[in-house]
Specification:
Layout (H helix, E strand, L loop, with lengths): L1 H27 L11 E8 L10 E4 L2 E12 L2 E9 L9 E6 L7 E6 L11 E6 H46 L7 H23 L3 H5 L2 H23 L12
Parallel strand pairs: 1-7, 2-6, 5-7
Antiparallel strand pairs: 1-4, 2-3, 3-4, 5-6
Helix pairs in contact: 2-3, 3-5
Length: 252
């Protein structure tokens, strides 16, 4: 007898626990209202996309929760959202509906409502809404692309500046060695060739739209490799054969 009573108590406890859990979930999701039932009106809003919105999500009128999302269903490649809104809220034909994120990094959504001004509408009126949370994601993506493009533009500007400085150095080198009767044709030829490489790199930076594409360019990689190799060869040759670049004339 005691064993049967104990089994009945355990079964009753499990059933009550499950019931309480279901009630709590329903209450927090807005499917169950606690207290006196408030009068509400039903409205329908069509969206092109309701990504993130769920049944039971709050409906806020100018920042104050005044209703809940009750239903969502597909109709002709659009989504019709049905909301229950407090009867004290009077909507007009100019009312605006927008799905928004509760935070920039969270996934929770709510339906924002601006009652608008103009001619009042009756319950079951149909509105068109907008998913502003998706627009925010698109905006962030555009900002990322803009930053990438600005970085590429800055690199291009720096490269043009470096190329101009290199050309000035070549001209200065010519002027410096003139009094000594020095032959610097080979040195000048190599340095001018390097400046041409910088020109082609600048063109690449101007044409590419993002840093990712720029860094993945095989043409840019080969140009940098060739330029570096020429500089290394030039330095090595100057150290090994300085007479090729500096030839003092003692007699005319």
């Amino acid at each position: 007898m005691n064993r049967q009573l104990k089994g009945f108590a355990i079964t009753l406890f499990v059933i009550l626990s499950i019931g309480i859990f279901i009630l709590m979930v329903s209450w927090f999701s807005g499917l169950l209202e606690v207290g006196p039932r408030r009068a509400s009106n039903t409205y329908h809003i069509y969206f092109d996309n309701v990504s993130g919105l769920k049944i039971g999500d709050p409906v806020e009128v100018l920042g104050v929760i005044k209703g809940r999302v009750k239903k969502m269903r597909l109709e002709d490649n659009r989504v019709m959202v049905t909301v229950a809104l407090s009867s004290e809220i009077k909507l007009t034909k100019g009312a605006k509906f927008a799905i928004r994120s509760q935070s920039y990094i969270g996934s929770d959504k709510y339906l924002f409502v601006n009652p608008g001004v103009g001619e009042p509408v009756s319950p079951n009126f149909i509105f068109n809404g907008e998913n502003e949370s998706l627009n925010l994601e698109v905006t962030f993506s555009k900002i990322d692309n803009l930053i990438d493009n600005l970085m590429a533009l800055k690199l291009g500007t720096e490269l043009i500046k470096t190329k101009d400085e290199l050309l000035q150095a070549v001209q200065s080198l010519r002027e410096s060695f003139k009094p000594f009767g020095t032959s610097v044709s080979e040195l000048t030829f190599v340095l001018e060739g390097i400046s041409v490489k910088f020109d082609s790199l600048t063109d690449l930076l101007t044409q590419e739209s993002t840093i990712k594409e720029l860094l993945s360019s095989k043409e840019l990689y080969n140009e940098l490799l060739t330029t570096n190799r020429q500089l290394q060869d030039l330095i090595k040759d100057i150290k090994t054969n300085p007479q090729k670049y500096i030839q003092l004339r003692l007699f005319k």
